[in-house]
Amino acid sequence: MFPGEEAHNPRLQNLYQMANWWPKTAVKPQPAQNPASGGAKVVEEKPTPPTGRTGSYTVETLRDLTKISEINQKIFRQQTPRAMLNTTVNEVGAYMKAARTFR
């Protein structure tokens, strides 16, 4: 929805980097070349399998994940599709501090 936003949003850049995914329009950050190497080819290390934790989460990310879980629980408690939609719009809008939401 917002092309180029990843260039201005460090939190979004961090999310892309943690997921090792970038949109087609985004430029994947390249590792900085060592000036002492004289521009020689850099051999990438082979990935090692994850052992234990695979990423570190910021306070904002943990807060977002907690709220997503709470909203999901509220949505699935609803009995009709319309009630599910209304709950989704209201809860997400309130969390994002939106003055207006459209259904």
Quick structural summary:
Helix content is 42%, strand content 0%. With 103 residues, the chain is an all-alpha fold.
| Quaternary structure classification | single chain
How many individual β-strands? 0
The structure class reads mainly alpha
Q: What form results from the Cα inertia axes?
A: elongated
Percent of residues in beta strands? under 5%
Low-confidence stretches: none
The helix tally amounts to 3
Mean pLDDT: 76
Radius of gyration: 20 Å
Describe the biggest sheet? none
Give the N-terminus to C-terminus distance in angstroms: 17 Å
- The helix content, as a percent range, equals 40-55%
Order of helices and strands: HHH
What does this structure look like?
With 103 residues, this protein is mainly alpha-helical. The chain is 42% helix and 0% strand. It contains three helices and no strands. Helix 2 packs antiparallel against helix 3. The longest helix is centred in the middle third of the chain and has 18 residues. The relative contact order is 0.07. The mean pLDDT is 76.
Properties at a glance:
103 residues; mainly alpha; 3 helices; 42% helix; elongated
Helix and strand topology:
Elements lengths: L9 H10 L39 H18 L4 H15 L8
Helix pairs in contact: 2-3
